[in-house]
Amino acid sequence: MVDKNALEAPCGIHCGLCPLNIAITDTKMKEQLSARLNLPVEKVTCTGCRSIDGYCPVIGEQCATWVCVKGKGLEFCSECAEFPCVKLMPCSDRADKLPQNIKIFSLALRKSKGAYEWEKTIKDVYDRYFHGVMVIGHGPQPK
After folding, report:
1. Could you tell me the pTM of the whole model?
2. What's the average pLDDT block by block, 10 residues per block, for the chain (143 residues)?
3. Cys-Cys link to 15, which of 32, 48, 99, 102 (CB 3.0-4.6 A)?
4. Omega of the bond prior to 10 within 30 degrees of 0, cis?
């Protein structure tokens, strides 16, 4: 069982690398997110899905993916017989701003390599993905 305080979201996002988690200690990030998300500054932080029972400060309610995973008694979407499902599909209205196929790639990486290797490589994967160095499926792959 994954620790409630673990920074590994059921959908594959590494909460410790999420801007909402980084905003806990980064005032500039918090202010930027507040303006971009049109949320009060005090609501622009997140300690990770597991520690707050899947409540998402951006949508103001529990994440449907988190509810689904917990309802099935699983720890990660990748453990489900229906993986990948519609809950992991890209948000077309915000596809240019939100992580999309990185969730499925992250879950598959964790499932195939294990938690230890996932933790060692996921930051590099995020850095490459979000800075345009790596398009999943093309170019250098994580070790």
Report:
1. 0.72
2. 77 86 91 88 88 85 90 93 78 56 81 87 78 50 47
3. 48
4. no
